[in-house]
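Supplementary Note 3. Input sequence used for the single-chain structure prediction.
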Amino acid sequence: MMNGPWEQTFCKRMSDFAFLRPAMPDEVPVSIKVGVTSGCFHREHSPQAYALIDQQLAALEPGEDAFAFEEHESGPEVLAYVSLAGGILGFAASVIALVTAIVQSRAAGIQKGDHPRDPLRLKIRRTRRNGEFEEEVVLELDWHDSVAQDQVEAALTVAAMKGT
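The predicted structure, written as discrete structure tokens, is reproduced below.
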């Protein structure tokens, strides 16, 4: 069951996302959080990173909005669907590209002067039908670690498979 206000807020955010963009029969909503282990990762402290993230969001083709982008003090969150079609589990390419760009933007932002340098944690989160909250750290990276799109996709896919 939900433990406290944070989990209730998360559940409401996921519910609002599902209401605004209803799932297809083979889709499950998830949250992909790119958060810091401590400190902040938001516009005020990471303006260079967010300039790059904003460029990535602006470059999306019309119709590639099958997700929601949320800003939080601890780091951005992407609400999206994981699809299980034909026995193959996967995320939309635009979601994987955005999450990878967020991680890469943080490193680039630090190189351009952003000052928080705490490690990043890539997490996948979801709520169950019974109201239980699940969260799994799928990658932990120092700011200078490089990460490729296929690495992000593999980590998220493995974690999502555990929850289906």
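The longest helix spans residues 93-111. The chain is about 35% helix and 25% strand.
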